[in-house]
Specification:
By secondary structure, the chain is mainly α. It contains four helices and two strands; from the N terminus they run E-E-H-H-H-H.
């Protein structure tokens, strides 16, 4: 089964990904990284070496582990990298909660995108482990 996604209510089919950049999950994760940088750029300057740095590092970890896992040969090895990415998703989820509670900005859009990345990552991992499903 070739990868597909839903756009405007239509299921769109794609051929197999040739690079990690072809993966919808990576594209969404990359968008989240850009959003995390913009959001954290508005954090107070005293957070530069604290929350700002940690949040950015965790966000980048999501997309970079998806990219690294893409070229791994075995299913278990691939999924291990996607599991690390999922751990970074949860880390970012906490940083968004903290930023909201500290009133450092509106995190609603970033939280929504992160939820989407998490769901896609979970589905992609499951499809690798159970390709016949």
């Amino acid at each position: 089964m070739s990868p597909c996604w839903v756009e405007k209510g239509l299921v769109i089919s794609r051929g197999p990904a040739k690079t990690f950049e072809d993966l919808i999950v990576w594209q969404k994760a990359h968008s989240f990284v850009l959003m995390a940088y913009r959001l954290s750029g508005a954090f107070p300057k005293h957070e530069l070496f604290g929350l700002t740095s940690q949040f950015r590092r965790a966000a980048v970890s999501i997309a970079s582990n998806i990219a690294e896992g893409f070229r791994r040969r075995g299913a278990a090895d691939k999924v291990r990298f996607f599991n690390i990415a999922q751990g970074s998703v949860e880390e970012c989820r906490y940083y968004l909660i903290l930023a909201k509670d500290l009133e450092y900005g509106d995190v609603h859009e970033a939280s929504s995108l992160l939820n989407e990345v998490s769901k896609l990552l979970d589905a992609y991992s499951k499809s690798i482990l159970n390709p016949d499903s």
